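FORM 7B: Structural annotation worksheet

SECTION A. Query
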Amino acid sequence: MPSNFTFLKTPFPQIFDHAAKAEGLTYSAPRASCFYTRFTLEQAVIWLYDNDPYLKLPYDDNLSALIHERTFQENLSPGIFPKLRTIQKMGNVAVHRAVTVSKKDSLHLIEELFHVLYWLCRYYSPNGKNLAKLDFDPQLIPQATESDTKELTRKQLQKLASELSQTQEMKRIAEERQKQTESELAAVKARLDALLTVNKSDRDRHDYNEKQTRDRLIDIDLQEMGWDLSHADAIEYPVTGMPKAVSPSGRGKIDYVLWDDNGLPLAIVEAKRSRTNPQAGPQQAKLYADCLEQKFNQRPIIFYSNGYQTYIWDDLNYPPREIHGFLKKEELQYLIWQRNNSKPLHELEINPNIAGGDRIYQTEAIRRISENFSQRSRKALLVMATGTGKTRTAIALVDLLMKANRVKRILFLADRTSLVIQAQRAFNKHLPDLNTVNLTQEKDIQGANGIFSTYPTIMNEINKVEREGRKIGPGYFDLAIVDEAHRSVYKKYRYLFDYFDTLLLGLTATPRDEINRDTYQIFNLEQGNPTFAYELNNAIQDGHLVPPKGIRVPFNFMRSGITYNELSPEEREEYEERFLDAETGAIPEAIDATALNNWLFNGNTIDQALEVLMLLGSYVDGGDRLGKTIIFARNHNHAVEIEKRFNSNYPHYKGAFARIIDSHDPYAQSLLDDFPKQINPPRSPFPSICSILG
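SECTION B. Predicted structure
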């Protein structure tokens, strides 16, 4: 049977089979066709990760994470990424949303898949350089007949999506990469480099039809946010009152108008339907907004987009800014409501029961951030030393912003579940009226206005599309708080901070001079100049913290390594047992300190360290008992060895004195909860020493 995907048969036979199936359902089962188109794309993307070693594995294995990974995007030819987004988004709509999926939708997606797979074949197949210039031909798609397969329901497609999950395949790829040696990796890269060099030696003359992709993406993005474009006045709404210099008749047509339930305009969308930069659209959109304001006495929020880039402009409050899509109805309603109901932050009192009081620096921090937000900056970076109350300061700020009607829903992000739990408990204590949800434990966020999450968890949630549309859109939160904001977080999860159109507050204990330049850039700040800083030396001078006290410990081996000739006869014997090469009989002359750290599991070294702790540690209760102590281990295995040696050397503590707290124990949180509690010796179950991964 003829197909638009025949060119795949030889180089990619499995992908051809999937594509041909999606193509065959285009007219007979449009919803199922969109699903299989998305599935085919997923197969192609996974093939790329399996065969291109230059692509870094992302934070998760869902399709959205795979296509948004930076190295993956940079590898694509111009115009391909929007096609991937179109297929991924429309595929999600077909599976999850109770909207009509037309033959026009499935036909468009098949054509987009055609261009994506042509690109794959053109650059990654052995004979890609000689791939003929091909045009998509709708006539090759079989027409629907009465005997054709019936359309699948959303429930059937959801079940099918679960059965066809590619999670295990991505895990296989990750495991194989870990096993790959440097020489094997170099060989794979060399073969790929040679192939790409040949295929890129001749210019790609294929017409990827970028304009059509741009146009359709705007519709898909709006539908994903729950907007019904079948509304009579949703598209090309006529207006009067345009300046004569622009329109001699004074008339115009707005590409899209997003209406409130009361018949008032919430927003307009000006679509630039060509290669035009979207920045060419704001003045025209402003004039349309003027016309609607004159007619309805309500100024709409302005969006302008070319399908690839979208900007939001609430011109009564902020300059234009780029946004990852559009806002839902309730989110636009809240922006309009805020215009008449928000209060000046400087006129409101900071709750001294939460922060401030005798800690004047906390009040100053809140006022500095408030001034920053009042001046229409949308980002702030707070540097405060550990123990000076970053979280309480953030809670008091949230309380102030909510009283001012500036914030309705907040997102608190941390990189570990334990920190998420601690933060949620602190918010619950000081803001009991805040309805909070820990997203790592609960998935129902309906009605919650305080969401607490790790980065991977929220990344998964923003990719979900439900019956009513995307679950968490870019405008879902009004404030995002990032705990321990540092470079690795922003480097790995940059998409997250680009995705949410929200006020952003970063919290960190890292001294201002040690914060990476990239972090300052994300907050639009000059390097070394956070929004507010209260560092360790400030806290010590003011008497809120005490300076650290170091103890010199004679672990020369760990500092300077081991030299064989400098060892005693007994030590040489142990050295030979540990480091002798069994095959060659060779003994290294020396081992440097870095390499030696890999042998931290040395029982004697651990015993010495524990002996120093028990002798010189901080004792309480009149010197009768070692106080709360944290030991930072190198990794989990090292922590296990420390606990093992402690129990061996100090058996009278019955295994309850030193405990490991890390992610390997599903009940670690209960140990963490117990750790700060008051000890009532001798039978207390609460540990006094806990080993934590360093």
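SECTION C. Observations
Residues 53 and 189 are 7 Å apart (CA to CA). The radius of gyration is 30 Å.

SECTION D. Sign-off
Analyst initials: ____
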